[in-house]
Write a structure and sequence with these properties.
Helix content is about 45%, strand content about 10%.
């Protein structure tokens, strides 16, 4: 049986390892949501900064729900392997930037103490879209049981909102400057969105705290990009064989990575720009391009891939009909992007095509399919509405929405029960069980998800989606594609 990866065993592994003295690193960042994406992305960038001699930016990782990451990494002193994979092979790097790990449900007091530590100057988040607890209108869901709990029990919160608000209150009471809050989730204007939500939460506590959050705390927006498939047992076995050590939770990723951040950090920040991060005044255009072209295509590939029997992105993207659909989706979405922001979407989509074709990643379509009701508004719906406003039809964008509905309805039938999940699963099951006409099902799903609420073109979008959904019901993806003429021309890149 192999020894475990740790500070004591790392010296001779055949991989890039931390060369900085880890015990001399001081904490400077608390990260909420210490999952695989964070460990492949932000933690890797911070590791580079530590290698560069910035020893006061170690990460305190916080799991808001499950102890799994802590249980895997604590015996390894927070070390883990980042496996960077493409069709040419695999490179291993051991990351050492995570200095300690906390599990919020086990000890919320310890998390609050870490957040209140004066050495902590940045709090980053990757908690997924659903964890921001927004209602259908985009505002804070003040009736959510966890929000109600946090308002009644500020010293033992459950939500990111509760932890941030209480920590900021404690820092203010102690005369400690506030930390900067850096959202790294796929929300539109993610910094501004989280700022607004936290102000709403703080107002429910008291007006003074709300003013403090509004006026004194920085919330720069950011855009993150790296494909991170779920780690499998085969991945663990392969990494262990190469390292000669057991690693309970290595992370798989691609060579490409990108991080664009608005440069507003009153309490200081690492010199990220020296290690590939783009610091800007306005991240909005970069965010729009990534959400609408990468994430939008990913969602379309996921749902159409599932309905077509493709388990991974590369296999789905190799399907000529899905590839043609993606090219057409890009052609619809590109004109909705800001035209005066210096974006270059054609080379960007060409690079995306290469990334989607990476056979080494085995990125599961079911993994991408999770939480569609939270993801589609910023990935698909916003582009579809922009086209309708311009007098253009979003035929392929609306097909992606219909594919999500069809894939949700297919679980327990042509797809396994629970194959992917959504926060609206119980309500969706109720709608699907009513045997309603397709148009009424579509409208009911739009109501549940809050898609295009209040928008003048909402009904037109519902009608387009319903038409596609009829095709899915009558003949599956083949008929839905045929209705758009897909399959009758060779694939091409968006122009």
């Amino acid at each position: 049986m192999k020894k475990r990866l740790s500070n004591m065993t790392i010296a001779n592994v055949p991989a890039a390892i931390p060369r900085y003295p880890r015990r001399a690193v001081a904490p400077g960042i608390v990260h909420l949501g210490v999952g695989a994406f964070h460990r492949a992305h932000q933690a890797a960038y911070v590791d580079a900064c530590l290698e560069g001699g910035e020893s006061d930016w170690g990460i305190v990782g916080v799991s808001l729900r499950s102890p799994d990451t802590r249980d895997a990494l604590k015996p390894q002193d927070g070390l883990y392997t980042l496996a960077i994979r493409d069709s040419a092979g695999e490179q291993l790097q051991v990351i050492g930037s995570i200095q300690s790990l906390l599990v919020a449900p086990e000890n919320p007091g310890a998390v609050l103490a870490a957040l209140a530590d004066p050495r902590i100057r940045i709090v980053t988040l990757t908690i997924t879209e659903k964890a921001y607890l927004r209602a259908a209108d985009g505002r804070l869901d003040s009736t959510h049981p966890d929000i109600v709990h946090d308002l009644a029990n500020p010293g033992s919160p459950k939500t990111a909102h509760g932890f941030l608000a209480e920590a900021l209150a404690r820092r203010r009471a102690a005369g400690t400057p506030p930390f900067t809050v850096l959202c790294c989730d796929n929300l539109p204007a993610n910094g501004a969105t989280l700022h607004r939500l936290l102000i709403e939460f703080a107002k429910l506590r008291n007006a003074d705290l709300a003013r403090h959050v509004a006026d004194e705390v920085a919330f720069p927006s950011s855009m993150v990009d790296r494909i991170v498939p779920a780690t499998t047992d085969a991945d663990r076995a392969r990494v262990a064989q190469q390292l000669g050590l057991e690693d309970a939770w290595p992370v798989m990723t691609e060579p490409f990575r990108q991080w664009v951040i608005e440069d507003r950090f009153p309490a200081g920040r690492p010199a990220w720009e020296q290690f590939g991060v783009t610091m800007v005044e306005d991240v909005g255009p970069f965010e729009d391009m990534k959400l609408r072209l990468l994430n939008g295509a990913h969602s379309g590939i996921a749902y159409l891939g599932l309905l077509s029997g493709h388990a991974t992105v590369d296999r789905a993207f190799a399907d000529p009909s899905i590839r043609q659909f993606v090219d057409r989706l890009w052609a619809e979405a590109i004109p909705t992007l800001p035209q005066d922001a210096g974006l270059d979407p054609i080379p960007y989509t060409a690079e995306l095509a290469q990334r989607f074709s990476n056979t080494a990643l085995a990125h599961r379509t079911a993994q991408i399919a999770n939480d569609g009701s939270q993801k589609l508004p910023q990935r698909i719906v916003v582009s579809a509405l922009a086209r309708l406003e311009a007098g253009l039809l979003p035929e392929h964008l609306s097909l992606a929405v219909a594919a999500w509905i069809a894939a949700c309805a297919a679980r327990g039938g042509t797809l396994p029960e629970g194959h992917f999940t959504d926060p609206l699963d119980a309500a969706l099951a109720d709608v699907f069980g009513r045997n309603l006409p397709t148009a009424e099902i579509t409208a009911a799903v739009f109501d549940l998800a809050g898609f295009a609420n209040g928008h003048a073109e909402r009904q037109k979008l519902i009608e387009l989606v319903a038409t596609h959904l009829v095709h899915f019901k009558q003949g599956g993806p083949k008929l839905a594609f045929a209705a758009l003429g897909i399959g009758n021309e060779p694939p091409r890149l968006a122009e």
